[in-house]
Design a protein that fits this description.
Number of strands: 0
Strand content: under 5%
Largest sheet: none
Radius of gyration: 19 Å
Shape: elongated
Oligomer: single chain
Structural class: mainly alpha
Distance between the termini: 41 Å
Length: 139
């Protein structure tokens, strides 16, 4: 993959990440449309890490408040009061941990299958069509 192709995919990632469309699907579709080499899962991951880094930089104060509240509530209350009490900010931290656990498990168990089978263009198009159909049905 050339630097220009990587830049194009980086722009696609940046433009599609915050819209209610699949940026990951577009990273698979765009190389096919442009006739460039498919990007690897590792390359896509790096693009997503770039997005995550931008979000962390932008929301660092909120994230610091969530992490520090969670740590304070867990350690202070569990050692001093022998009872854990979660403030609203620390509950966000708990929700993030609990919500991340299933993704980690699925990734560890099925990561190779997902990379080999579900990143094929025909599978991506099927999923996008079904998601669009489900969204229209819900409206």
């Amino acid at each position: 993959m050339t630097i220009l192709e990587a830049l194009i995919l980086g722009v696609v990632q940046a433009l599609t990440e915050f819209f209610p469309i699949s940026s990951s699907a577009h990273l698979i579709i765009f190389p096919k449309l442009l006739g460039i080499e498919d990007s690897s899962l590792t390359f896509d991951l790096v693009l997503h890490l770039g997005t995550a880094t931008a979000l962390i930089v932008f929301f660092w104060r909120d994230l610091f408040k969530i992490v520090s509240s969670f740590a304070y509530d867990v350690f202070y209350h569990s050692f001093k009061q022998k009872k854990i009490h979660f403030s609203p900010d620390s509950r966000y931290g708990l929700y993030i941990l609990v919500g991340s656990f299933p993704v980690i498990v699925v990734g560890l168990l099925f990561g190779n299958y997902i990379e080999e089978k579900l990143r094929q263009i025909d599978m991506v198009l099927i999923f996008l069509k079904n998601i669009r159909t489900i969204s229209v049905i819900r409206l």
